[in-house]
Structures are given as C-alpha cells and as structure tokens.
Amino acid sequence: MSGGREALLAQLGTGATSICRAWALERKDGVRLGFTDHDRDLAFDGWEFRAETGMSAGALMQTTGLAIDNVEAAGALSSSAITEIDIAAGRYDGAAVTCWLVDWTDVARRMVLFRGHLGELTWGTGAFRADLRGLTEELNQPRGHVYQRICGAVLGDGGCGVDLDDPAYSAEVAVEDVDGSRKFRFTSLQGFAEGWFARGRLRVLTGAAAGLVGQVRDDWLGASDRTLELWQELRAQVSVGDTVRVEAGCDKALETCRGKFGNVVNFRGFPYIPGDDWVTVYPQRAGLNDGGSYRPRTRDLT
Question: Domain residues of the chain, as ranges?
Fold first, then answer.
C-alpha cells in the first residue's frame, strides 16, 4: 500500500481537499463495523464504511518512544451500528481499531493514521465517546513469569492443558431462575460436588447476554437445586431459559491440580519455593543443614 500512500501525499501537496477519514472496528466476538466522516459510503480492503453515522474524531496525538498514542472518537448512537445496549454489555471493550486518511475520489490513495484498540468507552444522551489506545500501550504491560507457589496458568489454556470440553469439567444448561444478573439457580446441574464450579467461569451462550463471561464466586447445593453466584453482575440481562456453559474452578494450588484435575505434570507453580523466612538464614556450624526452613535453636532455661 506504499504506492497509495505516496499518491495520497502527492495529492495533498496540490492543496486538494477531497480527503476524509475511515474507521474500521472489529470486536472480540468477530463483529466488524466501518465508519467514515464522508457524506457517502466507502469500500476497500473488504470493509464497508458507512457515512452519516455521526462519527468524528479529535486530533491524533502520536509520539516516539514508549509513550502512549491516543485519540478520542465520538459519534451518535445508531440502532444499526453502535448501540447503547452493546456498550453497556462491554461488547466493545478492547475492540481493534484502524483509521485511514482517504481520498474519497479514489480510495486507492490512502494511508493508515492509527492502529490500536478501544480503551474507555462512555455514552451519554444519544452519543458515545471512545478513548483509543495506540499499539505502544502494549509495551507498558507486564510480561514474563512470576515465581510463586500457586500455578501461573489459566485453567484450560495451553500451559495448563486441561480439556474443558470434558463433561467432567463443564456443562451446558438452561437457566431456571435468576436473581439480577449475578445469581443463577439450576435443578438439572447435578453430578458435581459442592463448590466444583467456584472460581470457574459462566459463559452465556444464548439470549441478550450471549457472549458475556462471568467469574463464579460461590457454588452451593440446596435440597434439590444448585446456585452459582458471580463476583460481579453481567452487563446484560440473563433471562430464564437462556443457555449457559459453566466451567470448573481452580484455586491454582498443587493439591487441587493433582486431586481435582489429575494434571500435576503441567502444574505451573513453584510449591517448594522458600518462604520469607529464607532471608533470615545464616550459616551454622552444627545441626541439620538440608536447605529447609530455618528453625532457631532454643535455650533450655529450666
């Protein structure tokens, strides 16, 4: 696309004003939306950019080094594009964003102004405002391994290796009773010990909240039913009859990995790492020197 960039820069040098911006937004669930501040729709690279969406943007601030690029976009809420319900549900959190500067008389003359993702997104009376974060923000996130007693993997990921599709660790059931969007009751979710799903995940598969995921705080059995409580309410309404997938929880302890999942070979923690008392250890001339925890000798004063 370097030829298109050079052509655009050459055209800008003539003082022509047939320039607009085009925005491509792709949510984590795969939904793709295109917008332009031109008065007609545009299309290129497999994207359709809709006009008259009320989309606009402030000045783009780009920097060198590790400072964060950012820009603010604003627009009118549209029932066929970005809706208040989807914003409240968090469906746009972390969505990928690309912005082009385009010659609307020839869309081949264009160049990328910004790549990044959505940060904070808020809405007011019929309009939204989105904070866009540049790619350099990723360089400010912590990376690497932490040496700790508990496991550093996420249950079911590549480092863990547990198959959450195994019926022993997950189930798909219909919600039979719901309190807000935080407590869910089931009578058909049987065959699992009490607390089996605590610290696990609840994924909504159907209904208005489809695609949302909640972290399970507690899981207890009643006389004939089971109740799951989330740490936080889901950001969309879950109704009776909606289908959810519940996945087993893990407290990341070695004993749980061995006894509940039979997966100790993939345990990603360091259960025998020395504790804080290790910093007080000093050499001794006699006694047991096996590298274990330091236990000072006591003097018999009787």
Answer: 2-140, 170-247
SS3 call for 267: coil
pLDDT greater at residue 47 or residue 138: 47
* H runs (alpha helix) in 74-128: 84-88
* Continuous segment of H or E residues that includes residue 58: none
Lowest mean pLDDT among 9-13, 100-104, 179-183: 9-13
Separation between Cα atoms, residue 102 and residue 274, nearest integer Å: 59
Query: How far out from the chain centre does Cα 90 lie?
Result: 10
Which tokens is 61 given?
A: 């601030």
To the nearest whole percent, how much of the chain has pLDDT over 70? 80
End-to-end CA distance of the chain: 88
- Note whether 243 and 220 are within 8 A (CB): no
The topology (CATH level 3) of 170-247 is Thrombin, subunit H (2.40.10)
Strands (E), 45-109: 47-49, 56-57, 70-76, 96-103
- pLDDT tens per residue across span 116-139: 888 777 776 667 777 777 777 777
What span, in angstroms and rounded, lies between the C-alpha atoms of 238 and 80? 22
- List beta partners, residue 101: 21, 111
Q: Which residue has the tokens 């008259």?
A: 52
Please state, in angstroms and rounded to a whole number, the distance separating the CA atoms of residues 132 and 69. Answer: 8
C-alpha span between 120 and 94 (Å, rounded):
9
Full-model pTM = 0.70
Strand-pairing partners, residue 89, are none
Strands (E), the chain: 19-26, 32-36, 42-44, 47-49, 56-57, 70-76, 96-103, 110-123, 127-134, 170-174, 177-179, 183-186, 201-204, 213-221, 226-230, 243-247
What is the per-residue pLDDT across 237-256, written as a single tens digit (0 to 9) for each? 999 999 999 999 999 999 99
Tell me the C-alpha distance between 221 and 154, whole Å: 26
| Tokens describing residue 120 | 């904070």
Q: Is 277 helix (H, G, I), strand (E, B) or coil?
A: helix
113 and 119 Cβ atoms separated by less than 8 Å: no
